[in-house]
Amino acid sequence: MLEKLPSAVGRTLRRVRPGLDRIVSRRSEIASHGLTLQLESPVFGEGGIIPVRFTADADHEPSSPPLRWSAVPDGTRSIALIVEDADSPTISPLVHAIAIGISPLVDELVDGALVAGSQMVTLGKSSNLKAGWMPPDPPPGHGVHQYAFQLFALDNFPELERPGRHAFVDAIRGHVLAHGLLVGTYSR
């Protein structure tokens, strides 16, 4: 969708970015614990480039990248994920995916797991107001975007149906036992 935007517009908006300080896991009421989940992807490393097949530039319907994690603390009742673009030309980070209700016995989300109709997770609304994966789609000329994959071990099981960012934050506030962060990048 944004690939058709003129590069001059992207360059003009280059300084408009919320930044990593505005992502959910950096909020003081969320990240006030000392435990860390180890979060990684087999297709990109920390700060690495997200492969094209997971972006809006894919030759086919893009899928969500695979993720895996470890160090889930005792007492975890569910796991939740939010993916945000910390460099979107917006006031707040754009939400690319929300998933809640992941079993603490699960230690990965496979390639394409964040699609509507998934049996593994309950999907929330991304910034395009749809459930499922909204692929990276940075404006041409805007520079490198950082996509923050944030995983949370929770002491509860939020009963939410298609939550947005605010409902997600409200549901996990005060229930985070540990969290992990993996940042992937993409640009045009």
Q: Could you walk me through the main structural features you see in this protein, from its secondary elements to its overall organization?
A:
There is one protein chain. With 188 residues, this protein is mainly β. It has a single domain (2-186), classed as Phosphatidylethanolamine-binding Protein (Alpha-Beta Complex), CATH 3.90.280.10. 7% of the residues lie in helices and 26% in strands. It has helices at residues 7-12, 165-172, and strands at residues 38-40, 67-70, 78-85, 94-102, 108-109, 122-123, 145-154, 176-186. Strand 3 and strand 4 form a beta hairpin. The two termini are 13 Å apart. 39% of the residues are buried.
Number of strands: 8
Rg calc:
16 Å
Q: Tell me about the biggest sheet?
A: 5 strands, antiparallel
Order of helices and strands: HEEEEEEEHE
Largest sheet, spatial ordering of strands: 6-4-3-7-8
**CATH uppermost class:** Alpha Beta
> CATH topology, anyone?
Phosphatidylethanolamine-binding Protein
Beta-strand residue fraction: 25-35%
Distance between the termini: 13 Å
Q: Could you say which overall geometry the principal axes of the C-alpha atoms support?
A: globular
Number of helices: 2
Helical residue percent band: under 10%
Q: Look at the structure and give the mean pLDDT.
A: 89
List segments where confidence is low: pLDDT < 50 over at least 5 consecutive residues.
none
Decide which structural class fits the backbone: mainly beta
CATH superfamily: PEBP-like
CATH architecture field: Alpha-Beta Complex
Number of discrete domains:
1
